Amino acid sequence: MSELEFYKTIEQPAVAEFKDRGSKFIAFAYPIETIIDFKKFLQQLKKEHPKAVHHCFAYRIGTDGNNFRVSDDGEPSGTAGKPILGQIDSKDVTNIAVIVVRYFGGSLLGVPGLINAYKTVTSLALQVTPIVPKQIEEKYLVHFDYTQMNDVMMLMKQCNCTIIAQEMQLFCNITVGIPKSRLTEVLYRLNELQNVDAKKLD
């Protein structure tokens, strides 16, 4: 298993709680694929916890390391988002968002106290959900005549591709995730079939 063929992520959401001097921190970890997924979860939590004083978060998406964001949501700069992201990165996971909801307990925790609370509660959330390896895939749209259905589907199965969406009529379209490690082989074999066209998606 080379580094480039797999990435680590979580498959199920997880929740953990941490209390310090009356303040309550609840971390919600979610598997996400897109920023839209993340925004949905954030809006949902804001609705469910309207009385919380802060909804701080960090997320990381994709395997190139460039797509991430942190937010302190009104906490002192660097005390929430960065410690959350630090825990995500220490577990080497991606396609994940952690949102921490904070209820203020009356006592100020100070910068070290806040950093510790956000770090601890994120770490707890990541401990209660299994971290799994997933293969890095390239997305393709495969267009074919329905007579080729069996051949195409058989190939997808043999090569461990993920069917993301499908539309089956006289002409069929399937959106698939092809493992990066087998991309050349899959495209070559699709090319050998009649009336089959594969196009890379962004």
Based on secondary structure, the structural category is alpha+beta
| Beta strands, count | 11
Mean pLDDT: 94
* SSE pattern, N- to C-terminal: EEEHEEHEHEEHEEHE
Largest sheet at a glance? 5 strands, antiparallel
Uncertain parts: none
At CATH level 3, the topology of the largest domain is Ribosomal Protein S5, domain 2
Overall geometry comes to elongated
| Count, helices | 5
Structure in words:
- With 202 residues, this protein is an alpha+beta fold.
- It has 2 domains: 131 residues, Ribosomal Protein S5, domain 2 (2-Layer Sandwich); 65 residues, 2-Layer Sandwich (Alpha-Beta Plaits).
- Helices cover 31% and strands 38% of the residues.
- The chain contains 5 helices and 11 strands.
- The protein has a 5-stranded antiparallel sheet, sandwiched between helices.
- A hairpin with a 2-residue loop joins strand 9 and strand 10.
- Helix 2 runs parallel beside helix 3.
- It is elongated.
- The mean pLDDT is 94.
Topology:
Blueprint: E1 6-10, E2 14-20, E3 23-31, H1 35-48, E4 54-61, E5 67-71, H2 81-90, E6 96-103, H3 110-127, E7 131-135, E8 137-145, H4 149-158, E9 162-168, E10 171-179, H5 183-192, E11 196-200
Helix pairs in contact: 2-3
